[in-house]
Give the backbone structure.
Amino acid sequence: MGDSNQLKAILTAMGANVSDLTINTLLDWVKDGVPLNVKTENGHTYIYLDKGQLDMLFKAGTDGTSDFSKLMTAFSSFIPQDYQMVVGILNMIPNNWKATEVFSIGLDLIKK
């Protein structure tokens, strides 16, 4: 797997000075898989990441900016114009992260 220092250097050159915690976590997820939670109730199976697993990405760092926002800024030129509105919506997540009590992102599978 790629070296975290190389990835950090590439991202920094792109203008995304992302924390070591975020880089190492994302590399671990690529290497070992994303540690998803699974819950089954009332005919639904939920497979998701919760707020605690995403803190490293969305929480503001010492500079007041989240790693997510830094990555979105660095890669925004690669996102087609038709999808730029989505970038604005996604950037609302870190802006409200501190006040967010519960956050889950995943799948809701329904047995039929």
Notes: The mean pLDDT is 92. The radius of gyration is 16 Å. The longest helix spans residues 20-32.
